[in-house]
Amino acid sequence: MTNNLSFKDKCKVYLAQWLVKWGKLTHDDFTKAELRDLINDSFPYTFTFNIPMGTGTVTVLEGNITLDNANNRIGLQCLAALNIVVASTTIYRAHVVFTVSASPHYDKNMSTLYLTGLSTDSVSLVNDDYALIKDTQFLVSRFFPKSVNSLLGGSLKSALSLFSAGTSDIAADYLQVYLTGSKQAVLEYHIPHINDAIKKQINQEDLSHTMRGDHWREVLFSKLGQNVRVEDEVLRFYLIE
Hints:
Layout: H1 7-21, E1 27-30, H2 32-39, E2 45-51, E3 54-68, E4 73-86, E5 89-107, E6 112-126, E7 132-133, H3 136-143, H4 146-149, H5 156-160, H6 165-178, H7 183-203, E8 208-210, H8 216-224, E9 225-231, E10 234-239
Antiparallel strand pairs: 1-10, 2-3, 3-4, 4-5, 5-6, 5-7, 6-8, 9-10
Helix pairs in contact: 1-8
């Protein structure tokens, strides 16, 4: 595996192996900044989810690494743009912050770090000028015929009953969320959809990192690495001869 290393880096691996043997080097730490460098090229990142009458899009703009020492968890706190589009019109948009986390597991036989037990820990609204919510009157006047608009003196469900019962009930229940005019209420309605979309997207990704042959620290760990833990605000790779 050292074939991809420069002569200088090969010397570093050789020296480090002796330091481990003498008990002078027991672990190697990767900081949040170093871990973030591994994922920087992943942003922006977009995924979608279905909603009644339209589509939701989440564009992950940036992510910061978080480390939970007590629970041995690596987290990724993401700033994302959420857009809800119905009939080619944006009816809701907001910036949201969501955090996902997982536990590190190192397979020394495969020289590979895996992230396991992944979960979505939180989704919250950012109150800023990007936020937008269309009112219900706009939605109905935009997406339904005048014959329906004339019925707005009654309930939405009565108005939408001109359509098929199942579809109208779902649409009316969804539009009812917007009656509050609350950006937080709309976000809370969509949180289960966002969570499901995140899980679905993550399940399609390869949440692993095989030690690279052109990075001397990773070559060293592929030779002598035993396990990995989150400790002291770093991802600590334990070494043993």
